[in-house]
Amino acid sequence: MKLQSLLLAGLFFAGAFITEASGQGLTGRAYYKTSSTIKFQMDSTQTSPEQMAEIQAQLKKQMEKDYILSFTQTESMWRQAESLGGGPATASSGGMTMVINTGSADRVLYKNVADQAYEQEQDVMGKEFLIKDALEPAEWELSEETKKIGNYTAQKATYSRIIDSQRFSTGMTEMEAVKDTIQVVAWFTPEIPVAHGPENYFGLPGLILEVHNSGRILICEKIELNPSADPVKIEHPKRGKVVSREEFRAVQEEGMKQMMNRYQGKPGEGNQFTIRIGN
What we know:
The chain contains three helices and 15 strands. By secondary structure, it is of the alpha+beta class. The chain has one domain. The strands form two sheets. Strands 1, 2, 3, 6, 7, 8, 9, 10, 11, 12, 13, 14 and 15 form a 13-stranded mixed beta sheet that branches. A two-stranded antiparallel ribbon has the order 4-5. It starts with a helix and ends with a strand. It holds the Pfam family Porph_ging. Keywords: Signal. It comes from Algoriphagus jejuensis.
C-alpha cells in the first residue's frame, strides 16, 4: 500500500505513543555502518580483470564508513563518526592508481520532518555549499515481510522512481542526458516510532534501520534511546554558500562541464572513465 496516504495517520500514532511513553519526548542515537560496491569500466588492453578486481576490493574496504544519526521526535542530524581513516579512497595495482574523493568527513545533514525541510553541507571542486530546501517525500510501499535487526522487529518498505541524470565519458564532446531508475529497499521498526532514517531516507512510521540502494548498504548496529548521561543535541550545518537544491545541481553540472572540457576528444590517452551525476 502507498505510504503517503497513511503517513499522517502513522505520524499521529507515533506522536501519541511517544507522548504517552515519555513526557520529554523520544530522543536517541543510531549508529550505522555503510558500504558501497564500486563498479567501473576501464580499457581492457591496459588493465587486466585481476587488477580491476583488486582495485575494486581495495576501494570497497576503504569506503566502509561509520555514521551517527542523532534524533528527537521531529529533528535529526546525520554525520560521519570520528575516524582515523579519513580522506579519499585510494587503490593501486600493477602501477595504476585510482582515487575517489568521498567528500569531507565532517559534513552535516539536518532534517526536520515536521517542517519538511533539510539543510546539507556539500562541496564541489573545493567550494563549500549549504543546501537549504524542502524534503522530497518518497512514495513508500509497505510489505508484510518482517525480520529481526538486533533486538528490534523490522518491517520491509520499498520505493522506486526515475530521475534525470547527466553522463560524461572520455572521448565525448558534450554531456548526455540519461534516465536512471532508483530502487530502494528499507527496513524500519515501529518499535521506535519516529519518522527518521540515515542519509536522505525518512518518512516511514518507525526508525529506518537498514537500507539497500543499488550497491550501497546502510545497516544500524547500535541504538541508544533517551541517553541521560549524554543528552542528544541537534545541530544545524553552518558552512558554505546557501543554495537551493536546483542551484546546487547547476553547480554540479558546471563542474562536470569543466571536467568534460579537460578530457573531451581524448579517447586514446590512458584509461577511460565515466562520470554520472543525478538528483
